[in-house]
Amino acid sequence: MSTRWYRDPSGDRNRREEPMDGQAGRRRQSGTGNRTSTARSFSKDSLKRSLSGCEDNFPTVLPVLLDVVRGPDRLAADEESQELLREKLHLLQADCAGVNNLFVELSAQLVSIDSEEKSICVTFKTFQEIWKFTTYYTTGFLGHCLEDLLLDEKVWLSSLEEDVAIEVSIQEEALNLFYKGILMQEGSLFGSCSVSQMFDSSTSGADLYLEQGDIAQFEPPFLGSGWTVLCLADGARGTAPKPALEPVIPFHQWFLKSCAESILVGNGKPACDFPLQFATGKCVATQSHDAEGPDELSVAPGDVIIIAGLLVSCFDWFTGKKEATGEVGLVKTSFVEVSSETSDSEDVFLDTKEWMFNTQKEEEIIKESIDELKRKSLNDVGLNYKLDTIHYQDSENKTRSPDTKPSPKKLRKYIRRILAPEKYSSLASSVMENEVLQDSKQTARLPCFTVHPVVDGENYTESFTPFFSFLDGQDCKEEFAVLYGLSSESLSSTVFEGHADDDELISFLGVARETARKRRLYWMQTRLCFLLGKLCAGKLKFSQARVYFEESLGIPREAFTDLRLLASIYSNLATIYLLQKNRDGFFGVAERLGALVLGVPDCLKSLEDDTVLKYMLKKAVLAHNKRAEARACYLLAKHHWMKGEGNQVTPYLERLLVVWDEAQRNEDVSPSHGYLVLGELYRKLHRLHLSTSAARRASLQPSASLSDCLGSMMLVLTTDQEESVPPRLAPYLYRSLAFIEVQEGEEEGGGGLHHRALSHQLTLSLCNCSTISDRNSALIWLAWLHIENHQPSIALDILNLFLVSTSEDCKSPQQGVVLNMRGVALRCMGDHRSAAESYQAAVDVCREYEDMPNWAVAQANLGLLFLKAGAKGLAQRKLTEALQLFSELSEENHEANFIAVLLELGQHYVDQRQLEFGKGCFEWALLLAMKAKLADYQLRATRHLCHLYEHESPDQAQCIIYNRHLIQLLRSSGNRAEEGNALEAISQLYLALGTERAYRAALDYTKSSLMIFIDLGWKEKEAYGWLKAGKIHHLLGQTELVDIYVQAAQDVALSTGDTGFILNLLEAAGDIFWDSCQDYEKAVTFYRDRALPIAVKISSAQSRLRLCNKLTEVILALKSYSEAAEFAHTAVDISASAGLRLNERVGYHRLAFVYQHLEQSELAEHYYLKALALCPSPLQFDEETLYYVRVYQTLGDIIFYHLKDPFDAAGYYHLALAAAMDLGNKRSQLQLCTRLATIYHNFLVDRELSLFFYQKARSFATELNVKRINISADQQHVSMFQHSMQ
């Protein structure tokens, strides 16, 4: 299986930013968006070899290999399908005009077609053609274009269920060499240094040094000379005979070559060491900085700065807001550091709204879809009730939040027109005209000011009053935003009147500026300077314009809050600096403007041209910052889109979507809108194949919405010139009407779901429905689609319009369907009371018409509603009634709803701890699913039973039975991942039985799961599978195989490169030998020699503590007490430094125990007392008091028997006795009283205390039925004691 054909030019070793997702360079193109596989990245070795001396081996053609695949796994189709492909290619060999035109559109030239090999050979003339071709290849457009060309009508219709596609692959080596060969022919290329290297300087005395990963411009040798290099950081030049370089990817090649040298060269390398490349949240200032102008923010060490928008590490500035004062301004990236509230953002867009290029089209798309579709189909959605099994993520909160997408007004109007055509037909055109007029009125209107001739000595204060009043204000107004965007010509002609020429207007504004300065009207003066600068620039007086713009930056006495004005000033200054070849000035302004654009998206509207955005993209490319590159491409595409420059939007939008696809992340923002915009641009450029491919890609995105799918369908209809709906539109209709259900059905293996969705694929063609019943059914289906698309408010609008259009007195079965679906929509919106009323109305309709199947569904919906509302008793009653109705039905096709209700009721019983009823419901559901052959419901019921018998009502035998059935179901569905997990689970169940036969069964299941994990490439699961198999062999006594399996697990773990995972696996390997109470030496080897050094290397305190504790125990078992003491000391030190009091206390106790075995009694006493000192006070549990009893008794024994100190021993026994009395443990009190009586009788010779404790001991002995107490001392011990006293 091949992967993407290029990566970041820095490669795995040199890249400065990891891909946004680790799978970006390895996967096939997503099955939801493309059916082609891609080649791998440029080979570094091949590039180096070819650049140094293989110029004559460049290929002249590139074979494009084709294959027919089927299914979600993209497996090769049968031979019959492959033969159909060969026949189609054979026909194209004779008449290749169509395929030739296609590849011209794809920026390639057709060379030949080989039908037997199923390949098409193409060639290229420029690297731009390779760039465009590989872009279409990576985005999946190439595969979709070939599908349009090679697949006939039957395949399009059958592919709805069989998922037929054309898979495209390209030979990696040929592609690499082709690209490099064209670059060599063109004589100049941009490349990335493979290693750090020196170049002989051609501009100064010092040699040029480029680090690994640095991008520079290279020129190949000419007439025996060496390679020439231009450093992009500072413009230095150098030469080398054979530099180690890799060409950058084609898009970077095109972009860097298209940049002007004034933008491309200079400003050095990014010097900031901010650790996060794409930061949001808050950061902390590290040094003091006084603002040098009103655009900057003054900061002091420790100031918390809120990042406005994004902080990108490769840029010098960012827009920040001081948390303490609320001031907003520019902050140098090098002045701040990360804090606990700083996060590394993965999102390229600040929000969903920012991503939308054209919101107006989104609002009209449903109406346009209905107007264009001219087909109809009958369906049964208007007859059968829907069961409320919709599960939104936090549905009620989501649908009621302010950000919820409102119902499209045009959809409501169109539905009213369908329901009452006689009322709305005459108003259709006027409604559209009114909407156009309203849209045109939304633009803010600017006042017009009269220009008075300038006469020396006159006072113009009154003349300036209305103008100053308009310009007044610190913040940006809507009128200001319009004013800033006007050109000098528009400014002179629309805002001002009464002047003969621009010079007179400039003189008038100059007097106004001077008046504002004298009156200290700073914001008016600032805006006047800006206007003067615009007018001077329009007259090509750039020096004077620059003076005005620079003056405007220094006028305000407080921070800039009109950031649109600030961005406009920066943009005009950047343009002037470039024209005057002031690179330093341009770079400084570009950095600041880039910070504004990243922080305040509206500032993008203030840009005069794209030079600053190109500068931003250049810095992102040189810094290898993929997310910054994606953001810059988005800004460039959006800028050109707002300027109406569609042809300039295309390359940047294509690159943005490529980077997005490489990231493979699930974002709230869907890329479908970008593909639709790109498709519309292709259509306007008359690249119709690409337009259709972009529409297909948009509709197949996993995150695509109903509007996205309808937009894709409309794009295909607009592109296609046929009068009728073409067969290739079937997949779009299929996904538009049932994309959510189709995805769920594919995941769960439900086959009937495809046919049900297909039966409704044309129900959106409402305008041509021949009967009222068909029209109503289509409306109901459209409402249900909106409910499934998380848009219940729109569905509710449709259903309410339907009810309003029908008679209240005459109820029909279809009204019951609408009332039931209305209840579902209301429940999804959180309005439970209204939902219950609607459900009950539906029940009444069913009762009136004796519609038993729908009655059962409505009753079940009422029960589910009460269940969600917390009314458990009512829910149980309604669900039980629904089951009664379902069980009395003789018709078929109601089993799915019956089973769904059984599963819901069963889960309710389990939650209420009525486990027997829950078991009955689940088993009943499983039997029904087996009888109806509903595989997905069999899986659901079996999973419920497995969970029940494993967790709620433990029964190992039943749990094993149902897990075995689950494995059979998963095996038949082809879900290898779930099958592997199920095999792993049942292996653990057998392992828990603890018999030899169970161990052997567990071993078989473990090996089966291991094979699956190997096939899936799940390294971690595979490693633990090997380890588990080794553990089972150890339990079976097959010790000769254990080491083999453990070594295999270790090898797999090492191949992952994940140090933390390797550490955990090595520790688990040691646990095998430690838990089995055999081969303690092997456990020590894994703990001490393998796992512990890794834990020390990665500074994992928890792992070191855990390993030291285990080593202490296992070495104690080996009776190597001195070594055990070392690890016990280490464990204590780690616990103390980490502040883990319980671990520290356990460590001290274990250390005391070790020294007790080493017969070092003083140290043992010391550490026992340390352990006691860490006990909580006061004592809360009996176990803690018992611990005191045992430790003090142990201390007494140590002092008495080893240190021969009966006095101190008696003290410890007294403390132990006090704890035992507090605990009420009479047996411990008997032992302690006996010992105290012995000590006072034989050693301390205190007859009174001896008698007291003897009587106490006798009393406890009588209660505990102990027949004899002996308080006489051992004669040997007495003599030893007397000898020690002498």
UniProtKB/TrEMBL annotation:
- Which key words tag this protein in UniProt? SH3 domain
Q: Does the record bear Ligase in its keywords? A: no
Q: Which InterPro entries match?
A: SH3-like_dom_sf, SH3_domain, SH3TC1/SH3TC2, TPR-like_helical_dom_sf, TPR_rpt
The source's domain of life comes to Eukaryota
The keyword Transmembrane is assigned to this record: no
* All residue ranges annotated as the SH3 domain in the record: 278-341
Stretches the record annotates as Disordered:
1-44
Q: Where is the composition biased (Basic and acidic residues)?
A: 1-19
Polar residues composition bias: residue spans? 30-41
Per its record, how is this protein called by name?
Answer: SH3 domain-containing protein
Task: Name its species.
Answer: Oryzias javanicus
